[in-house]
């Protein structure tokens, strides 16, 4: 099950953070088709956000065809995204790179800017 973490200082709407974190879990294989998402009540208890915010995020995921709500049962994953499992050797390399960047004195924004620049270079024109 996914555990949502809300960053109230990020400037990103709370429901969007939930959508993004769910998609990331789907891409990494942490959530698989058939898995149940936490109930709105569980998310509210863990994050202290409004239940309507959770429901809005789940509706967005449902609209995108990623999850389905089953009346009286909960919300379940319909399909996965991507092919980058959480235990991928590439993730290990990226983890080591991020650690080196931090040791070199780069902050989170610097690392994000570098990573984004590299992504732009290698995935230019890629619709995903």
From TrEMBL:
InterPro entries: Tscrpt_reg_HTH_GntR (IPR000524), WH-like_DNA-bd_sf (IPR036388), WH_DNA-bd_sf (IPR036390). Pfam families: GntR. The keyword Transport does not apply. It comes from the Bacteria. Residues 12-80 form the HTH gntR-type domain. CDD domains: WHTH_GntR (cd07377). Keywords: DNA-binding, Transcription, Transcription regulation. SUPFAM superfamilies: Winged helix' DNA-binding domain (SSF46785). GO terms for molecular function: DNA binding; DNA-binding transcription factor activity. PANTHER family: GNTR-FAMILY TRANSCRIPTIONAL REGULATOR, HTH-TYPE TRANSCRIPTIONAL REPRESSOR YTRA. This is GntR family transcriptional regulator.
